[in-house]
Amino acid sequence: MSHANAILTPRGRLRLARCVVEEGWPLRRAAERFQVSVTTASRWAARYRDHGEHGMEDLSSRPVSSPQRTPVRRERRIIALRINRRWGPARIGFLLGIHPSTVHRVLSRFGLARLTWLDRATGRVIRRYEHQNPGDLVHVDIKKLGRIPDGGGHRSRGRAAGKRNKTGTAANRRPGYAFLHNAVDDHSRLAYTEILSDEKKETAAGFWARAHAYFESCGITVQRVLTDNGSCYRSHVFRDALGPDIKHKRTRPYRPQTNGKVERYNRTMLDEWAYAKPYASEAERVAAFADWLHRYNHHRGHTSLKGQPPVTRVTNLSGQYS
After folding, report:
1. CB pairs under 8 A, 24+ apart, for 253-258?
2. Strand pairing class (138-146; 224-227)
3. How many angstroms separate the CA atoms of 202 and 236, rounded?
């Protein structure tokens, strides 16, 4: 396709061709007038004689024949493997003896959705959504995380030393679990998290009261809350904590992707904080969490927000870049 400043746009080609064909200009004179070579002037004049005005448009650069193109039968096998097994180009290419880039071109040519857009269980395209305003929906979830024994676990000390730490003193024998209660705003991805000792209904209700106060301090009025079907969220205590003005929605059973934004936040939290480095104790890891959460909300770029941090969508939050 010709660019805007090209000398011979389709309209310019037509003027050149008409000067030669209809007005009888010599090719050299027409070439000098339109600042092109004689060969170019001859080509557009011939195209005008053969095809008229429609011949002045750009033609497809696709070759008439493609003898090296992947055979149709092999393309069908690639598509069948993608649909039936939901494999990526690397696995399909290994099975069929084809380079993954070739498999990728075939999948792109037929417009098949990326694996990240599909529900792995059903193969259906995931319907992604984002609520229009902060507070329209807040995702709430609990992540269970094993505590680190004093002296460090196997990630920092190795399997043998980590096992000795875990079975040494009485306090370390059963370090137990920490329960990360999380709330993530659907529109802004602003997150609030507390590390608590259990997932009982009273604990979940108390967490929501503090999370709600935090969102209100940021100028966010919560309209709806989405949780899974855990017993603490089905309790009357949690219902009372929500109050009459907040609508409570629950995910379909065995469909955690419905609460996908907080599930993705959980994964980011594990990768960038919980397992980001070997900690010598649980206290050391807990102490590092506040700085990580501040960085997540105020400074870390979010891909779904075009590289901006969550605070850029919360207009009333003070001290955004402190």
Report:
1. 253/229, 256/228, 257/119, 257/126, 258/226
2. parallel
3. 10
Nearest of 56, 2, 39, 45 to residue 21 by alpha carbon = 45
Q: Is 280 exposed, middle or buried (0-12, 13-18, 19+ CB in 10 A)?
A: middle
Alpha carbon distance 116, 101 (integer Å): 18
Region at 291 (left for phi over 0; alpha for psi -120 to 50; beta for the rest): alpha
Confidence of residue 259 (pLDDT cuts 50, 70, 90): confident
Determine how many CB atoms are found less than 10 A away from the CB of residue 188: 27
Q: Which residue has the higher pLDDT, 211 or 170?
A: 211
* One-letter amino acid of 272: E
Helix ranges, the chain (H): 10-21, 27-33, 38-51, 72-85, 89-96, 100-109, 154-157, 159-166, 170-173, 201-217, 236-242, 260-269, 282-287, 289-298
What's at 74, amino acid-wise?
R
Please determine, for residue 21, whether its predicted confidence score (pLDDT) is greater than 50.
Answer: yes
Average pLDDT for residues 96-116, to the nearest whole number? Answer: 88
Residue 170 CB-density burial (10 A; 0-12 exposed, 13-18 middle, 19+ buried): exposed
CA–CA dist 264, 242 (Å, integer): 24
pLDDT one-digit tens code per residue, 183-235: 999 999 999 999 999 999 999 999 999 999 999 999 999 999 999 999 999 99
Answer whether 282's CB lies under 8 Å from 148's CB: yes
pLDDT in tens, 71-93: 999 999 999 998 888 888 999 99
Three-state SS at 167? coil
Of the pLDDT bands very low, low, confident and very high (cuts 50, 70, 90), residue 59 is confident
Query: Minimal CA–CA distance to 191: which of 277, 271, 274, 268?
Result: 268
Cα separation, 16 vs 18, in Å, equals: 6
